[in-house]
Amino acid sequence: MALSVPPGYRRLDAESLIDYLAGIEGIGEQLGGKPEQWRVREVGDGNLNLVFIVEGSSGGVCVKQALPYLRAAGESWPMPLERAFFEHSYYAAVAPHVGAAIPRIFQYSPTLYCIVMELLDPHVIQRRELIAGRRNDNAARDVAEYVARACFFTSNLAGPFERKSDLMATFAKNQPPVRITIELIFADPYRTNPRNRWTTPQLDDVCADFHRDGPLKAAAAYFGDRFLTHAQALIHGDLHTGSVMVTATDTRVIDPEFAMVGPIGFDLGAYMGNLLLSWYSQPGHISAEDDRKEMQEWILQQVVIFWRTFHDRFRALWKVEASGDAYPSSMFAEPGDAPFFEAAQRAYLESLFSDMIGFGACKMIRRILGFAHNIDFDWIRDPDRRAAAETGALLLARTLLTHPHQFRSISDVVEAAPHFARAPGAAGSRIRL
Ligand code: SR1
Ligand code: MG
Predict the structure, then answer these.
(1) What is the spatial distance between Cα 186 and Cα 190, in angstroms, rounded to a whole number?
(2) Among protein residues, the one whose CA lies closest to atom 4 of ligand 1
(3) How far apart, in whole angstroms, are the C-alpha atoms of residue 237 and residue 224?
(4) Could you read off the pLDDT of 303-361 as tens digits, one per residue?
(5) Could you read off the pLDDT of 42-51 as tens digits, one per residue?
(6) Distance between CA atoms of 270 and 360, rounded to whole angstroms?
(7) pTM for this model (two decimals)
(8) Cα–Cα separations (whole angstroms), residue 71 to 52, 79, 383
(9) Does the N-terminal peptide bond of residue 201 adopt cis geometry, omega within 30 degrees of 0?
(10) Is 390 in the pocket of ligand 1 (CB under 6 A)?
(11) What is the CA(47)–ligand 1 centre distance, in A?
(12) In b/e form, how buried is each residue of 283-300, taking b as 16+ CB within 10 angstroms?
């Protein structure tokens, strides 16, 4: 049975997309040439939506359309179209703060549930660059700057609480992505669910171990609750390396359909966790020309750059832009207040760090034992090699969650990573922890 959709909605194809675009003021000039000469390609490779690239004689646009179901699962997993509205609303909310770090938006259609936006070209998805062993030296730093600005300016540190309350009111209705997140990230990897998959039989015992690990499950559940309750700022909600597009000199953040008001550490953890997943996956992508050793070293440097850039920018913004209802600067105006205000700021940043570690670990585990995996590992053809790489990542993630006090600084995290790396075992054999 076909899923019901609101009046006016239709799934776009090349013909209807060209008709639609031809009716938007300014798009004809952007593309160049006549509509019948425009070329349309559907390029979506994500879990949720259709993504079209439309090119004319002088330029292009990208069109992202929500489907009434989850693309990765088909019609058996319905998903409301409104995620396109929330994606557009997120872009609009952060645009004044992050400048050109997001794509330029040309139009949002509330009937087609699609966004017409800048074609990012020659940008490529950062995850694919990491898999190919290519280094984009600005990306981690730029994403850190982005998170610092987007989150600081939408938090109570920067503005009146009413402004953040309005964001909460708007994004409170973006519930289906939140349901996906709480189930797929914070619960399913730790329990039996037919949606889960893992490299089998190699990881069968590891997976069973994780399902029986009480302290690990308690830690994951803590972060699941924190995700739902710690309404710190407007967050992207899905900021992995597949949501970042890069060139040698430019970085853009895309795909914010999971946006909500939530913990800043969730965005930080998503990016950091995915860099670490990339680190563990590198041995699976070794070639005769590249043993990936330097690549691995570079990735760990990016983890450090990411956290330190975020930390320094967030603190700097707080020094000069603190006009919000949280920690009002006028309250710390007495002589002698400064050390206490600074200590409070340090504590706030330390809690962002521990959130980043915990959420990052949950993000790592879900990509190995849950429903939605990463191509970093999926593209490793040899299952023994893949399982070894995945095991290393799982072991680090489990330790991050169960022994957080061992990780007081970002150096502690990157120094720990190599200790958990595993060499591939005998063909087809199960890994035991
Ligand atoms: C069922 S959707 C699976 C995942 O795809 C998105 O990128 C989010 O990460 C979501 O959890
Ligand atoms: Mg996405």
Answers:
(1) 8
(2) 372
(3) 13
(4) 999 999 999 999 999 998 888 999 998 999 999 999 999 999 999 999 999 999 999 99
(5) 999 888 999 9
(6) 5
(7) 0.97
(8) 14, 9, 26
(9) yes
(10) no
(11) 6
(12) bbbeeeeeebeebbebbb
